[in-house]
Design a protein that fits this description.
The chain is mostly helical and about 100 residues long. The chain folds into 2 domains: about 50 residues; about 35 residues. The chain is built from 3 helices and 2 strands; from the N terminus they run ββααα. The longest helix is centred in the middle third of the chain and has 34 residues.
Length: about 100
């Protein structure tokens, strides 16, 4: 940015700085927290994948388990509405 008048204030730790109204230390802290959570999310996703594998290995259908989990998260009215709409669409194309 040629001609920019951004004021740079060095931070105490020498790693971050306040630049153009951006608090470097606070920004870095937020980024590091997000990075840690992304790692945890990845580890949790791997754990969940292993549980689905375990379920499959004992004869359960992971796809059906995923659907049940999705349905359990839904509000009962929303779930009922989705079921009714699915039944209506199936009837309309001769699947009922």
């Amino acid at each position: 940015m040629a001609g920019s008048s951004a004021k740079v204030i060095p931070a105490n730790d020498g790693e971050t700085a306040d630049v153009g109204g951006v608090a470097g230390k606070r920004l870095k802290s937020l980024i590091e927290r997000i990075e840690r959570l992304e790692i945890e999310k990845s580890e949790l996703a791997e754990d969940i994948k292993e549980i689905y594998g375990e379920a499959k290995g004992t004869g359960f259908d992971p796809k059906t388990i995923r659907r049940i989990i999705r349905l359990r998260k839904m509000d009962i009215e929303k779930r009922r509405e989705e079921d009714e709409l699915l039944d209506l669409y199936k009837a309309a194309i001769g699947m009922a």
